[in-house]
Structure formats: C-alpha cells, structure tokens
Amino acid sequence: MIQTEAINSDEERVLGYLRRFIRDINSDLLRLFCRFVSGSDNLSFAAINVHFVPHLRGLARRIVAHTCSQTLDLPTSYMTYNEFAAETRAILQAGHWEMDFV
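== HECT domain-containing protein ==
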C-alpha cells in the first residue's frame, strides 16, 4: 500500500511510524486519512507514494498531502511514534483541510 524507498535510518524510522499509524487507527480516522491522502473517503487508490522531506522541522513540521497523486511529503524529523501519531491525528481531526462540494 505504501510505495517508497527509505535510504537511511531517519526515513526507515518515520516510514515505520506511518505504517504503524495506519494499522492502529480506528475506522473513523482511517476514513479521514483516506480523504487527506486522496480527497475521497473511500480507498480509491492502490498505493500511497511517500517522499521524505528532511527540511521540515520545528513549527514547520507537518505531513503534506498531494491528493491528485496520492503522495505524502513525510518529514524525517519525528523522533518518537507518539510524537508522530499525535501530530498526525491533530492534522486529520482539525477539519480546516477538508474539501467539500458546495
């Protein structure tokens, strides 16, 4: 489901966090995650492409989604799973990124 090639220990670590997060979240958060990645509540894509971005640190750190290509820009600066999961949940539950039809 995730397409990428981790080439160093930082990338391996955060890729593991992403996989664990997807595996551990409930169905409501999974629906929000699908919408964040693809713009659709349903699993309408075969894979998530991941690009690692080492330069997003501090207050600028966040996961960025490109819905047309189902691509995530994933910062490599997360040091713990709890830190990654808390920030990712906050992004998904914030609601300000949602796309709705009028």
